[in-house]
Amino acid sequence: MKETLSSINDAKAENQQQSYAAWIGLDWADQKHFWSMRTADGKLQRGQLDNTPESIKIWASELGQRFAGRSVAVAVEQARGAVINMLSMYAHLVLFPVHSTTVANYRKSFAPSGAKSDPQDGDLILDLLTKHPERFKCLRPDTVETRKLQLLTEERRKLVNLHTSQVQYLTNWLKQIFPQILLWFDDPSTKLVEDLLLCWPTLPQLQKVSPKKLLKFLQLHNCRSEARNQQRLAEIRQAVPATTDPALLSGGTLCIQNSVRLLAQLRDSIAVFDRHIQEVFQSHPDRFIVESFPGAGAALEPRLIAAVGTFRDRFESAADLASFAGIAPVTESSGKSRWIHWRWACPKFIRQTFHEWAGCSIQHCEWARAYYDKKRASGKGHHAAIRALAFKWIRIFFRCWRDQVPYDEKRYLQATQARLPKRAQDVPPTPVKPTVVLKTCGDFKKLVEFSY
Question: Residue 88: which domain range?
Fold first, then answer.
């Protein structure tokens, strides 16, 4: 079996090498790129070019003329970025992204001392491409709609993370200067709190305002509960300043007002991204598939499309998708030791997408809630149970995505029931013990294999 797989890989590598006029390893940098090229006749050539669109255009045109438009394989230590964007403009350049960790570990094999140079890295990348071509997949851009969703959803998430960070920053300063705000209002990042702090950033300033003016201010910001408003007014009058230090009040007030302005800009930016995402999502051909899954919602549905793309041959099986997304566990074994842990090297945003979707699904899907409760009852933590559920969802999602059909919960439950042994269908299930004590590594292995 191993010999058969080896021969298949050798055949693939040979066919791949015969289809290109030359192979290039490109070590990119901020100012200059160093490249190493091996032609079909085995000759090696090295060079460098500036990191400008004009220089890359001249270089790509020279390659096209030299090899009469034949394809040239270019391996670059980047999967997304300025260099990839510029190189992808030229059809005769076939790009092969190489992970930076792969190059670093490959370099250590020949330079244990840690010696490194850009021209040598170009040689190493070229060596990886020519000697192990079956290990790398050429870059194949997805459809315009899908790439838009991939870019917009990922950048939106970065804005949300910035918003969360800024809320924590604001909360920290409010605790030092004006902690009562956190008691009077549930969310310090709202438009209400922003306007209030811009007008009256300290407690003494707020206490000087008349109750009538404050009541009108609250009502203009949709605070309609009369009892709650009166309670706020009473507490404002009775409140005591957290500090009287002039230095802290001066600097802290400036930080608080700057923070609420930044939060306002982030809210507006996130809203703009939401509108653009929905515009692209409404016209995407796979929209009907992700909309059929429970718990996804307006935020996660576009992210699910962005996670898998539209090319159905991208993943051979649901296991491939689960491994790529970082949901499937990793097994490390050596001799008698065996360790199963979660996947560290993976696209974090995609793993987060499936993890969050699985977490939301337990609120909208009965069998997902039952599966999650079963894992928690067996002794798993919250996130471990969510990952196990996400692994199960990925198998369902992959089948619907590959066959281009919407999710039908009734059909899924019927199929699950049909796969159960006849005795399991007739006999009621036994109660699950609330905890499971793992005594040996073997017990842990069995539990993980059962969970996944």
Answer: 2-140
